[in-house]
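User: New here, please read:
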Amino acid sequence: MATTANDTTIIGALEKALGPDAVISTGEKLEYFANDVYRTGEKPLAVVRPATVELLQEAVKLCGEAGIAMVPRGGGASYTDGYVRQEGGHVLFDTGAIDTIEIDERNAVVTCGAGVTWANLKTALDAKGLRTPFWGPFSGIAATVGGSVSQNTLSHGTTIHGISAQSVVSMDVVLASGALLSTSSSKATRFYGPDLTGLFTGDCGVFGVKARIRLPLLPVLPKFECLSFAFDSFADYHAASRKAAAARLDDSHFGLDLALSQGQIGRQEGMGARIKIAADILRKAPNKLKGVAQLVKMAFAGENPMRAGAYMCHFIVEGADDDEAALKAKQLRRLLDGLGREIANSIPTFVHSVPFAPLFNVLGPGGERWVPIHGVLAHDEAVAFDESFKALIKSYQARMDKLGIWIGTMFSPVGSTGFLYEVALYWPEDRTAYHTTTLGEEYLSQQPQFAANPDASALADELKEAIVATFQKHGAGHFQLGRAYPYQQRLSAEAKSLLGAIKTELDPKGLMNPGALGF
């Protein structure tokens, strides 16, 4: 795409407002920012990294006045074209430098810049014995609070406290005009009149760019127990997960099938990880004898927890003291009795010790390309979807085998009412600039590398679309909608009209992340 006089003018204006070091408009870095984990789009006109909220407002105002499309980007570890634009010519807003953390213990709230990573937030709050209710996805070493709120996500803390959107008190959003909108006029509660905060959760940045997010604070529960169970059928596993989620005994739990447990997850339990686990177990154990006993149990377990059943589910329960954690674990065992069998707990122990693992899983365990596809199902659709999905894969299996494509599945509760079913799709294909920049030469030099494989990529894309369509047939909802999942097609005429009116009011020129959510 040729650079126009208008493009040159806006780049110059942005450099003058933010400083030349905060604007990227040439070079290889633009190629990196044209990729997410899954797809490559056209290069942005420029990437800006404002250092303050005020500079973010100024940059947005300049782009708005020039009629330039604006696309916000969080930590970058997404895979639904949320910040990838096929048309190119946009200004990409990297909010990573807006990373202040203000802890207000008296009012039990923390105010985060949109670029704060969940890992850095946890470190800051750990020092004070505090946490947020939802405290990050597994990718929290890179994922930002602003990105997670824009996309909706789940993992740590979800069983009891819900997804990312449910742990937001209020936020400040920069609108397309450059104006700053605060979503609540009360410090004490999000729910003061209509829920304006909820309007900006899961919006993928189509209504504005997140600037600051306020989250409630809770005391850390210092004691914990980890439990794992194996199941021989998906139906038994789902029944156990549903019962556990309804009881809300655990802080978080997740399930894996055999393929994913031995592949992507198993790879992370190398010697370095095991040594770290050992150190953390002894440091965090209620007493040293209990810690040593746990280490011995894990040593005898070996690799068995990763192949103990067709499906395995892993729980982390927390308590204010040893008795509370033990009681919750006892209740959970009683609840799951007859559905599965308890196995060694090395996997959730690993996750508790390393909640935010390095982003090695943006490639498969054999260096393959990777993309997850998920749906949030009502419980009465979960088993039926599983059957439909397996039938779909069976119809593709011969073509998949020929091209070296394979899958694994993982699962998570979404409160007591929803069940997240996630398919991990792997195929042999060359890396992109995203992978080389994110993982670095040292790591990648030790991994297999594939040549360009358009046939495998085409089938992976076909499979992805077929899996999404199958989710839709079973009424699934989705997080991280971006440009990948259907949204407006599911709305009633009244809801679609209201959403369009809000978009027009907040962004009359349609410059905020055009194409996302179907806009």
